Every structure is written in C-alpha cells, then in structure tokens.
Give the backbone structure.
Amino acid sequence: MTEPILEVRDLEVRYGPSQALFGVSLSATPASVLCVLGANGAGKSTLARAVSGLVPPSAGTIRFEGRDITGKPSHRIRKLGLTYIPEGRGVFPDLSVIDNLRMAVGQEKRGERPAAIDRAIEIFPVLGSRRHQRAGSLSGGEQQMLALARALAASPRLIIADEMSLGLAPLVTESVFQGLDAARKSGITVVLIEQFVHRALSLADACVILMRGRVGWSGPAAEAGREVLERYLGEGEHSAAPVG
Amino acid sequence: MLQYVIAGLALGGIYAIASAGLVITYVSSGILNFAFGALAYFVARFYYFLHTQHGWGILPSAVVAIGLCAPAIGIVLYGILFRFMRLSSPLIKVVATVGLLVAVPSLATLIFGNQAIQAAPGLAPEPVRVFHVIGVPVTLDQVIVYCCVVATVIIGAAVLRYTDVGLKVRAMVDSPAMTGLSGTNPGAVSVGVWAVSIFFAGLAGVLAAPTIGLDPINFTILVAAAFAAVIAAKLRSLPIAVSVGLLMGIVTSLIQRYLPSDSNWTTEIVDAIPFMVIAVVLLYNLVRRGSFGDAERVGGPLDRAIVPQGESRLAGSTASALDAGSIGLLGRYAGPALLMVVATVLPLIVQGFWVGLFAQAFAYGIIFLSWTLVVGEGGMLWLCQITFAGVGALTASQLAVNHGWPVLAAIVVGGLVALPMGLIVGFLSIRLGDLYVALVTLTFGLLMENLVFTQNIFVNQGLGVNMNRPTFAGSDLAFTYLSLAAFAVVALFIVNLRRSTTGLALNAVRWSEPAAKTTGISVVQMKVLVAGLAALVAGIGGGFLAAAQTSAQPGNFATFAGIVWLAVLVTVGVRSNVAALVAGIAFVMMPSLAQAYLPTWTANIPPVLFGLGAIGVAKFPDGTLAQQGQAFRRFLQSRIDRRPAPLAVAMAGDGPTGTIPTGPSTPPAPPSPRVTQDVSP
C-alpha cells in the first residue's frame, strides 16, 4: 500500500453557529480518482473548501504529501500543488481567457509561463480561439474547460473537481470527464465531487459517501454497488440526479 | 471660457485622484472609505509640518509625506482594521470608517499642534509662478495637478492592463477566494491597494491644500464631492469615476461664468453641485432600474458562499420576547431604573452652570434615540439625524418666538416638519442598499446645511434665533426634568414599538430581507416608516436642545458635528435606550469637565476616543455599554436564577438595555450556513 497523497483525519467545520462537517476522515492514493458522493447539503463542498484552505477547520488534521496543511491559507496550499476547482464556474468571469490562464500559471517561473499556457490550450483547443473573450461570456461548458485548463496548466499533483458537470450538456460533460481521466493517467490525483453518480464511479478507484456531514460509507469504487448507493443516497436522490 | 475650463480641470483633477483612491479600495475590499478626506487632511498637514514648519525642501517633504507616510498609513490601517472587516456588514464598514473620520483630525491636532493655518503652500515653490497659455493665466500649482492626473491615469492604466501586479488586482476584484485558489495571497494584494489608495488621498490632500486651506472639514467636504463621481461610477468603474470627477470640476467652474459673482446664491449653488450630481445619478438609477442590486456585492459567488451569515452585524436581531422571561424582571429593569434614578438625582446635586448642561444632555439623549430607532431597529446607517434635529430646532424657534406659539406645540410641530423629510429621503435611498443610505443621507445633510440652514431668517446675522422655554419650566432645573420626561416618553415609545407587531416585522427585516419578503413584509415600507419616526424624534430632540440652549443656531447643526454625535452614540451602544441617555450625558459633560479641570490640549482627546470607539464596532457591534450590560445581566441571572441558562442567552429586546447577542453561541435564530444555495452563478 502506497503512502496516501491526501489524508484527512476527524475533520470538523463550522460556518458561524452551525456545524457542517463532523469527524470526516478519508485518504486518497497517488494517481487515483477518489469520488466523493452525497446528497445536497451533505458537506461535499465544505470538505473541499476546508481541504483547499478557503474555510478554516475547527478540528481535525489535513495532510498533503505528508505535510500538515490544516488551517493554511489557500494560496499556500495551491503552491504546494493542491488545486481546487470550485463548484459553479471556477474562473474569473471579468478577466479574459488568457488572463485567467496567466493567473493560473503565476506560480511558475516567468520563462516557463507561456509554455504552460500553450499546453493548457492544447488540451482544450476551443479556448485558443476565445483568447481575448471575457471568461464570463463563455458558454458553461467552455467555462468548465477553462477551469480545468487553469488547474492543469499549473502542474498540480492533486485536483479537487467540485461538481464540474453541473448544468452541462451530456457531450460537454463527457469531454470534461475525459480531461480528468487524462489528468489521472498523467499521474495527477483527482478528488471528484459529483452528482453523476454512475459516470463518476466508472472513473473512480475509491469512493466516499457523505451523509449530513459524516462519512456514511467508504471503500473501493467497484464495491459501491446498487445497495450502497440506494442506502446512502436514497431513491429520491437517484431519480432526481441524472444517472450517467 | 477657456480659463474657466482650465481652472475647472484643476479642481476636477483633484476630484479624479480622490475618486480613483476611493474606487480601488471599494472594489478590492468592499470598503467605501468615509475617512478618505480626513486622511488626506492628515497627510497634507504632515507635509505642511515638514515643509513650512520645519523648513524641509519641497521634494523631501513630498516624498516623506506622500510617498512614505501615506502608504504607511494605508498599510497600518489595513493591518489593524480593514483586514478584519472584509466579511462585515456594510453598516459596520461605514461606521468604522466614520469613526476614523472623527478620530484622525483630532489626532492630527494632537500630533502637529493646533495653530490656525492661514495659507498652505502646494507642491510649487513660493511665490507660485504663473504661466500664460493662449492668454489664460495658469499657476504652477495647477500645472502640477494636471501632471499628476495625467500620470495617475497613464501609470494606473498601464499597471492594471499590462503587468502581473495589475492582473492580480483585477483578479482580486473579481473574486478574492478564487485569487487565493490561484496561488496569489489576496491579503498581500489588499495591502498594496490600501497603500496606493491612501497615497492618492495624500496626493489629493497636498494638491488641494492651497485652494481649500488646511481645514479637516473642507477636506471631508471635498471628498464628499468626490463621492459624486464614485456613485456615478456605481462604486466600481475607475474610468467613469475619473472622467466624472474631471467633468464635475469643469462644470463647477463653468457655472460660475454664468452666475452673478457677487451673490451668496452663487456660492451656495456652486457648493451644491456635487450633491446635485449625486441626486441626479440616484434618481436616474432609481427610475431606470429600481435598484443598484449587485453594486454592493463584492467578490464572486464563491466569496459569498464561504461567509458565515449572521455574524458581526451592527443591528442583528433583538432577542425574541419569549426569552425575556428567563432573565427576570429585576435583571431587565434594574439597569434602566438605576440610571433614571441617577439621572434624576444628579441635577439636584450639581450647581448652576452644570444643571443647564444636564438639560442639554437629556436633549441630546432624545436626538440619539432617533439613531437607536433607525440603526438599532431599522438596521440602516443615517448620517443626517443632526439635520433633522436642526430642522426641528429652527422650526420650533421660528414658531415659538416669531409666531408666538406655545413652546411644546412648536417643538412637536418642528418634529412633524422633519418627519416627511425622513420619509422622502428614506423612500429615495433605502431600496438602493445600506451603503447608499449612508451616502445619500450624508449628501442630504450637506445640502440642507448649504442651502437651507444658511438663510438669514435662521442665521440672523450669526446670532441665531432665540428660543423660549415653556412658561411652567422656565428655570434650568425645571426644564432639565421636562427634557428627562420627554426622553422617557420617547424611550417608552421605542420599547413598545419593539414589542409590537411592527417591531417584530422590523426584527425580521434586520435578520433577513429575503426571508421577511417571503412572509409578506414590505421591507422598504418598514424601513421608510422607521426612518420617518426617527426623523420625528430627532426633530423633537432638536427643539428641546434649542430650548435648553435658549437659542437655535444653524451652525450647531453642521452635518459633520452629527457624525461626531454618531461616533459617541455608537461607542456607548446604538441599540439601547439607556445607551442614548449615557451618550448624551457623556457628550455634554466630558468636554466641559475637561475644560474645567484639565489642560486645554486634552480637548482633542474625547473625539479621538469616540472615533476609536466607533471603529471598535468592528469588534463589539453593540457598543461598550451594551457589552457591560450584557455581562452584568449574566451575572445577575447566575445569582438570582439557578436554572441553567437557555441556549440562546438572548437579552430582553424590550428592556431598555436590550442588546443583541453576537458571537457564535448566541443568535436566537441560528442562520443556516450558505453551503449550497449561493454557489451557482
């Protein structure tokens, strides 16, 4: 068993007076896909925000590549190689496509930045033709491609992708998933927060199901069969969420 | 014609630099810096201190004052204050910068001394050289202003567009959270932005000093004018703010060409121009869109998603009446009753002069209650309560003295004249949002001060109009008790308002406007109602103040004096009736006590303390008295009532020391975290 690249122990998060996460523990092995599932309000995004340093945890530890990153600010965590693509559209809507990519590669050495930007555009060529367009005026799919391109351009070691398929057409969703799959093949660990349960599971190696801020079930993705999903996500959730 | 444009460009240039400084901190930190003018004054005063008083050369003085001191102030202010206010409500942000506005000029006097300064040199060597361009005289000072504006625009645009630093600033404006996720420290960017903003303040201050003189109030009026450009830019657009600033300067200058130069009316119109621009922009936006909507939002959806709701609000919820029972009658009424007894006994103990001061203190208490209403209950920050008090005082004195009305009737009618003004200003500004309420009321106050309070019928060659006291309460002591009784009546009215259905509706509106709307409460209607009542109360308080002082002086109701009043009240506590009384006593007694028993230089200390107190709301939204009261009641409760404290140690909203619980453990209606609902664009 290899050393986990991300290890979360007994994580608790509060938003003011209310608590969103209760003792959540999970770990991800390098170059794998860990899929985090859960109903609305289960704490998936809160987990991602705490790991990426956007909200401070009130208890617990987060280790990334053996280093304690609990409570570190988000820009530090990003510099260590952990990249979070937030729910919604993970782009700067008022900046142009090229400025979005420039922001993403700001940590690289000055001379290497243009090459990093070119690599990112190679992954999603459509972005090349939209270089000077405002990111906010791109279509939803193009914005997600830009968000993913931003994440990949910065040579990350772990990407947390939060509901990237939300509100996208099936074809576009597919290309986003292919982008994530390619990232994993190149050695990047992916933590996938998804509503497309079956599509996400087909990509994932391991799976964690959150329920009301607690880990309800965790194990290899292959074992997350029908029973597990029905038990923890519920029939209602199933029929409401698109099944990929 | 050309000479007017050239003169106007100099004024416009200063507006432009100031509005640029205001916009950059608003878009990057969400803070509209009401203290900008005060800080500009501070730097200009420091420049004068170095250059004129200590004989430094122009260049070293300018480099040290504008280039080093100003950015350092920005960095320090960010580090100790603004850094913690990113997530605060607009109300708290405004109050904190208003506190700074009160504290900084007095601080400058304490540091640099208080000698009167007749003329302040600018960046040009004295005597100032005059050039002739196409027959138009242009001073070197004006040329320097043009150069600074051009440099600001060119360097600013180039940095923002083409450099990595500029990219980071633009990214930060878009979304600080996303900036952090991209590996850039948003805090570092903010520090830089604040340093640049206060640099602009210092530059504008030093450039403006030769024209407007070294007077803190003039500086703040100048910046209030720059607010017009900022509002026209909807607080966000740098190019619009700079262009409107320049344009306003030219228009101001051009208008003087067509108005008779020897009339008072001309000066009044010229002074009022920026405020007319604000009025036109607001009305235009009101008619066109009904609301500024997103204008007050800073950052993106992600930034709002990670903000916990219900924390650090100046006016959160009054606790529900249900929780009041657990505190017990003694706990609820001990404080207020004790204070009323003290307030009744004190005037009997003291002699002569001090008795009269108590009458004034209680009259101030009534005026302060209008803020208790509008801030505490309405959740809005009004900066023109002093104007309503002035309207009440001036009306009452006219009616009582010149028309022979009974005094009490005149005072009440004075309040009734202020009431519709409150309703109209409220109707125009409330739907635009909290920040605009503060801006519009400030503007309204300055406009009234310039256009109405200056009329000779009120000024009376600088003497003011006499004001009678009721015949049955002619002596100082009798009138003191009449004022105290009036205070008690208004305070009881507020207590009952809190208990009423209207009070509940207001409470709902303060906690969540969307939620209140879904239960069928008209938010604008409720807030306008409170604004009107507050104007009435302020007007009546103004009448009492005039009667206590036995004359109505328009000069006593200057808008910026009102901002000091607000700082005093906020320091003590803006949600409690008792605090209003304490604030009234403190405001009147502290300077007099200092004058009587302490060296004169200490006269500048109270404003600094009150300013700092107002800044302190960032940490204690309830004010100091409320904090103490809360602690006292917890103590009482633990002694009297052995039952375990309920989860929400909510204070009695209807008890006059009623305070709002803040902090994580106490809100009576724990708001839900914004985890999922706000994140989709």
